[in-house]
Amino acid sequence: MADSGERRDDIVDSAHAGPSHGFDAFDMKVFVGGALLIGFAIGAVAAGGLSILDGTPPDPEIESVEIVDSGCYEDVTPYSKSSSSGVWVGVINETSTQTEVSAQIRRPSPDDATVATYRVDLETHNTSVEDDECLGRIIYRVEYDTPYPDAADAMRTERYVDGDLRGCGSSSSGPETGCGVFYEDQPTHYSNGTVTDESL
């Protein structure tokens, strides 16, 4: 009977010993898995966050462009708006009621420029007025993102329609942004269609 009891003790001891080895194996798997995840995260930062590491500012982008109103000239109430948050609303007069628009944005200034410069170009399409069509007016809206580079102390955003300057917005902590130069001897386009050569 004593021998039987000793065997039972051996069996119990071995049953307790098994889970202990299992936990060791589990801990090792967790450690290896964690190390792999960390390595993957570092690789992702190195690949996707390269612009942060080398000081290159993020690229600007057009977030949306749309025609918010269109119709015969006298039926569309003109209005315009621009803001530093990246919203540009403008008017195109004496065009087809079927006119469409597209937009592009780029940063022509160097990455380390003191004055970061962005240029938004709006292009019109299908502007020809048909014989049986009234003279039209459209109102467009463009939303865009212009990141403020770390190296810059000022920023300006030039806005063009079919290559013609329509506006220049800026912000600065000291340096001259250069917007004033663009308005010298440039015609001013008002939302009601009036054009003047007076400097702003």
UniProtKB/TrEMBL annotation:
<protein>
    <submittedName>
        <fullName>Uncharacterized protein</fullName>
    </submittedName>
</protein>
<feature type="transmembrane region" description="Helical">
    <location>
        <begin position="30"/>
        <end position="53"/>
    </location>
</feature>
<feature type="compositionally biased region" description="Polar residues">
    <location>
        <begin position="188"/>
        <end position="200"/>
    </location>
</feature>
<keyword id="KW-0472">Membrane</keyword>
<keyword id="KW-0812">Transmembrane</keyword>
<feature type="region of interest" description="Disordered">
    <location>
        <begin position="168"/>
        <end position="200"/>
    </location>
</feature>
<keyword id="KW-1133">Transmembrane helix</keyword>
